């Protein structure tokens, strides 16, 4: 099965069983246009590229990764996702899939969500990483708790006790 192969080869920072559950959840929602905030080493970007039949994948990270920059089919933007210069480089066309895993503090994640979620099509999906984890530098969970009350259809994936969780909003 392709999902097992993708998960087994994944270098994404998402816990493998959470990733497996997420991909099964997304099977019924194919994406052609994806946007990722917080690329780090490109592990999740490669998952989206392999899983979806993407026409384009735009990734944003504050740290440059020369290997990912050369990956075919990926537009890799270097800079702060909230910088107007970076945002201006993101196509204003609508995306089917948005993955937010950038700066992990409440204010930054909320700003990313508010800036980029309007770029997602009404039938699209928004995924946030680390929604079940709360630490001094990771405060995504309170935002996730707020977002869940605003959406009719959502899922929270935390498949193991050590998982930091994945939140999925279905638009």
Commentary on this structure:
Helices cover 34% and strands 25% of the residues. The chain is an alpha/beta fold. It has a seven-stranded mixed beta sheet, with helices on both faces. The protein is globular, with a radius of gyration of 15 Å.
Shape: globular
Instruction: Work out the helix count.
Output: 7
Overall mean pLDDT: 92
The Cα radius of gyration reads 15 Å
Helix content: 25-40%
Give start-end ranges of low-pLDDT stretches: none
Give the biggest beta sheet: 7 strands, mixed
Q: Tell me the distance between the termini.
A: 27 Å
Portion of residues in beta strands equals 15-25%
Q: Structural class of the helices, strands and pairings?
A: alpha/beta
What spatial order of strands do you see in the largest sheet?
3-2-1-4-5-7-6
Number of strands: 7
Q: What's the SSE pattern?
A: HHEHEHEHEHEHEE
